[in-house]
Amino acid sequence: MNQPDHIIRGDELPATSRTGLHLPDGGDDRLFYGRVKWAQLRDGLSLHWSDCEELQDFVTENTVDPRVSFVLFLQGQSQVSYGDLSLTLGHPSSRHAPEGVAVSMSEPVQFRRQARRGSHIRKLVVSLTPDWFEGRGEGVGATDGAIRRFMGSHLTPRVWKPSSRLLTLADQMLNPPGYDALLASLYLESRALDIACEALASLGEATTVVEHGLRPQEYRRLQRLVEMLDSGEADSWSLDHIARETGVNATTLQRQFRSLKGMTVFEYQRGRRLNSAREALEREGATVTEAAWRAGYNSPANFATAFKRQFGISPRQVRSRV
Q1: 229 is in which domain, residue-wise?
Q2: Got the DSSP string for 238-293?
């Protein structure tokens, strides 16, 4: 049966997830309101999905065994890390088309996710372990080889664009019919395998190992750029100045940066400053005017509009919760 919306508390996570997921600092605070599901559909095939509002800023973590995970964000954005690999999954704006990310882990890693109060997250994660692939043949085609190489890699993310058909299947998984247990499991399993199949098929489409559609040297260059942007050093720079420091022209920079982050350089900068403003409101007791100044806005009204578009909640609502 389709589960109703309800509140999930911190002390319920380990038993509910059955994956060892927990809050590093413990606690029994209310974390989510909505629907969250973890399911072992078959040996080596697992599913996690959520359609919920995050009620607190919090971090969850657990140890993830070797597997390939296919993450499909339909709404919202999350900061996650798999060991030393940090990723921004999804987009803060619903105007962006959903994207899928495949991550291969050849050894156990520590997984962490940062939740943001007020965010609404709709996502699916389908995971296949090495045991699932055993006995299914080695394969000699180009796609088979690409899949095997990806399975043998460690923390090398790949992005794929889900088809409209797959997005429909994902929505069906988030809103399944009211079947009894056996049919419900078959319903979810068939669609989970469709997601895995499309994601794995996309691995064979490129002849060069790439990160977010970028060559390795391009990816590393942009990672250095992101570190510089996050430091605040480039806050007052023009796009041409940033491009010169990065070593490419402005057009190439925008195209490559969008491939990596799904947004322009200045959209990223605006989001980073708005996050800083939110922290000032929540943790430092800043006024809305002070937070607007920190985000680079002279007008508190314009700041409030951008803030609500980013987080789905107004600055005054955030401040009233402090």
Answers
A1: 216-262
A2: -HHHHHHHHTS-HHHHHHHHHHHHSS-HHHHHHHHHHHHHHHHHHHS---HHHHHH
The reply to whether 238 and 313 lie within a common domain is no
CA atoms within 13 A on the CB side of 217: 3
- pLDDT tens per residue across span 99-127: 888 999 999 999 999 888 888 999 999 99
| Strand, coil or helix: 210 | coil
User: In terms of domains, do 39 and 132 share one?
Assistant: yes
Q: Specify the pTM.
A: 0.64
In a domain, 1, yes or no: no
pLDDT, one tens digit per residue, over 176-231 is 888 898 999 999 999 999 999 988 887 755 433 345 566 667 877 888 898 889 88
Measure the CA–CA gap between 74 and 100, rounded to whole angstroms.
9
Shared domain for 299 and 234, answered yes or no, is: no
Q: Taking the CB of residue 179, how many other CB atoms lie within 10 A of it?
A: 14
Three-point CA angle 156, 107, 21, nearest 5°: 95
Q: Decide: 103 and 69 in contact? Cβ < 8 Å.
A: yes
Query: What gap in Å lies between CA 283 and CA 273, rounded to an integer?
Result: 15
Q: Name the one residue in this structure whose structure tokens are 């260059």.
A: 221
CA distances 151 to 39, 131, 206, 221, 243, Å, are 22, 12, 16, 25, 35
Contact partners, residue 243, CB within 8 Å, separation at least 6: 249, 250, 252, 253
